[in-house]
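To: structure desk
From: M.T.
Subject: fold request, one chain
Message: Could you run this one when you get a chance? Sequence is below, nothing fancy, just the single chain.
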Amino acid sequence: MSRIFKHASFSALKFKEFRSYILARFFFILVLTMQATLISWKVFEITKDPFSIGLIGIFEFFPAFFMAFYSGYIIDHNDKKKLLASSIFANLLLTIGFAFITSHFAGAHFQKNTILYGIYMIAFGTGIARAFSGPTSFALLGGLVPKEELSNAITWHSGIWQISSVGGPALAGILFSLIGMEISFRIMVGMMLVAVIATLFISSKPPMLIEKKEKMFKSIREGFRFVWNTKELLGALSLDLFAVFFGGATAMLPYFSDVILKSGPTGLGILRSAPALGAVLVYVLINFMPINKNQGKSMLICVAGFGLTIIAFGLSTYFWFSVFVLFLSGILDGVSMLVRSTILQLKTPENMKGRVSALNSIFVMSSNELGAFESGFMSRIMGVIPSVVFGGCMTVGIVIFTWIKIPAVKKIEY
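Reply: Done. Structure tokens follow.
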């Protein structure tokens, strides 16, 4: 085992705390992606309405968005390990809530609308917890390994997220078809408990010494100013925000799986896993063959390609072709995501990582959760297929605009 850790691609894993962190992150993300798959299917099963699926994103977005301004300040001024453990424990309680509201007991005693509203309320709570879990995870990373191992740790950090994102939807679809939703959620509760326990093996990570404790609003304003003045950060985050906001097709996957591709819950799990599987392939390759130059241009080209794959997915009526183009979208998104993650870690001072990561989470949540709502809203106006094709076209247009109007992004190198 020690020989493996000596290899440059695995060097970050020789640190015990980082291994505990990776274990916690794996099960945490695995459960979140399993939940997203089954809950979206449950909502579509109740309503048969793509717009109702998009509302899940709205209920997660608003609490996460407004709490993120506060969470960044809290993270920079408190023990990051305790905050991570607390946020994962909160998600454990919310998973128990999902397990109850989707159980046979709830189905027998509550009306469908009551179950639907219960799902939305638990999603609201998930948004609050996410305001802390994501930024804390990012801010904690730099304290788990020496600086010279940070680049490898970032690759593992992002790679584990993608591996979990591959396994979660696929596992959810398989378990749902074999043992049903109720027992699947019980298994998820056990997995989330493992994530909580893994965080206990990480030592305390108190905040860096600050000469004078700033007032909260001034501290938050400093985080905004730093991102605004660092054009590489601002450009990369803005590109991700608008590209995923318009180009995300995952919110509509239950509709495509049920109505167009006729693949059922198992097919939904495969469709949701395909992008992450592509991203995992990217992280394996980049771990051994890193991108050493022109990272900014590579990111822009990959985001444009991502938009083209979304157009192809929207037009497809064949299941395995749809899986293939989603797989390609994951490869392309994986490259751009790795470039963004590396820029954030390398460009952000340790004493500001909580606030900057909270701002990053706002961009991510805006693109994902608001993007889910945008997909549902536009599908009601334009129809599902035209709305997905429109989103892919907008993504390509945004890349062209960024290439011409924000040259700092294509000049990014590290």
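Reply (cont.): The chain has one domain: 14-200+216-410. Let me know if you need anything else for the meeting.
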